[in-house]
Amino acid sequence: VTSNGSAGGGEAAAAAETQRQQPAPNAWQVIKGILFRIFIIWAISSWFRRGPAPQEQSSTGGTPRAPSRNLFPKDTLMDLYVYISEHEHFTDFNVSSALFWQKRDLVYGDWTSGENADGCYQHSGEVDISQSVQQNGSIYIHVYFTKSGFHPDPRQKNLYRRLATVHTSRSEAQGSWGRNPEMIKRAEDYGPVEVISHWHPNLTINMVDDHTPWVKGSVPPPLDQYVKFDAVSGDYYPILYFNDYWNLQRDYFPINESLRRLPFRLSFCPLSLWRWQLYAAQSTKSPWNFLGEDLYEQSDEEQDSVKVALLETNPYLLALTIIVSIVHSIFEFLAFKNDIQFWNSRQSLEGLSVRSVFFGVFQSLVVLLYILDNETNFVVQVSVFIGLLIDLWKITKVMDVRLDHEQKVAGVFPRLSFKDKSTYIESSTKVYDDMAFQYLSWILFPLLGCYAVYSLLYLEHKGWYSWVLSMLYGFLLTFGFITMTPQLFINYKLKSVAHLPWRMLTYKALNTFIDDLFAFVIKMPMMYRIGCLRDDVVFFIYLYQRWIYRVDPTRVNEFGVSGEAPGSTQSSTSHPALPTGVPPTP
């Protein structure tokens, strides 16, 4: 059962715990949510701009239906009545304690009145609640607009007019996911479920300033859910909309026996048709659900991140961030493309850390298992899975992989055989690679042990399997940058960086700088911000090595090739030689 005084907000405690276990959304996920919502809004707006098609609709007699009109013409004087009750069907008009707010002589379509000259009015107060509400009972808000001089009570025959009264109420099924059977079923996977009523102290009532000649049966979805036609006259009532879009999940608080009154601030504002379409699109389920239940659905935490970004970020900076996010995706694709091209065309492993490739497979596997265990968005799961496949493919480029039919697993399946490539063994790279990971293990294993103890003592987990995954994932997220240092060590020992995929590294570095922008524009965990800074530091070390280990164009390598132009008299002996096996690059 859910209390819905300000759009409800009831939630399952176990489900909330599940949300706390989800990894914090990164910047691109937040911006992706904004962009996808813009697309949905554009699609709905395009559908709406087609306009009504009266010639296609007909009444019972076969004649075309005529366009209807708004029962409240422009500049109509109105009175507002707001009642709060524990009953879904309200009849206690004579009970003075049920009337929360009464506002007379409002003007329909007025955008200049009010305290801030924006047509908005506010009323604050406290709502007394009974023991039933304290124990997860229901509470409703009933809103009535009448033309000036009329009353919403149908029993007052002289003051009530059906066509002069528009009514809406917030029921327990609206705006709450605590009664959602699917959400409760998910929560039960993590333990016993206790449904707790929650309350948000803010709610806005919007009356849409719209006089479109709608035709019954031709209103495009999702707008048709809100346009209500009178059965007799055929005209439509003004559109009332409970707007709780800007209510953040973090501002809800539970209702229990310690509360006697609930704070409540109610606002009334006019709303343009275009903005109403935006909000209607937000409350509509994604049309892409046929691709998967959670394909484009966002968690409450992700939605709050989008709202906070829209509320607290300068509009110009927000627009710049969206543009840069598109550039981010382009760089991400280019880094992906150049990474594959580099390893596909690589003939020599001189100067490259093979162990880092295997460690990358381990990292990708841990991340994939972790997001599967936490039911992350399907798009993210596919992305990580593709990344894992690419890391596995890299193994075939850094080692000779073959099927050994002589030694079989369980006497049936051929055994996979791995052998280092000759270009890796014959050079000094393997020695430096082993040395780097030996030094690295002295740091990583103690840190892993300490983090495992910390995770076990201070963090909550669903079970031992989830503890192992979350511990490894958290450790890689915190200390994963250390695994980038073996390549720096090899570069230092070889005094060369000519073997590195610089295009791919450049694109990834640009994406890291973009992540820095997101991390400080959008609310992100401090560890995420520190992680971006650490990646920047590592890349600048790469740049420093590129500067000090410059390529000598005059050196003649073992292939007899030199970057010096023919006929040059400059001697190459005055320049330090690069390691053998590394062809010079201009």
From TrEMBL:
Its main location: membrane. It holds the Pfam family CLPTM1. Residues 1-22, 562-586 are annotated as: Disordered. It is a multi-pass membrane protein. The chain crosses the membrane at residues 316-336, 356-372, 439-458, 464-485. Signal peptide: none annotated. Residues 1-11 have a biased composition (Gly residues). Keywords: Membrane, Transmembrane, Transmembrane helix. InterPro entries: CLPTM1. It is found in: Membrane. GO terms for cellular component: endomembrane system; membrane. Belongs to the CLPTM1 family. PANTHER family: CLEFT LIP AND PALATE ASSOCIATED TRANSMEMBRANE PROTEIN-RELATED (PTHR21347), LIPID SCRAMBLASE CLPTM1-RELATED (PTHR21347:SF14). This is CLPT1 protein. The gene is Clptm1.
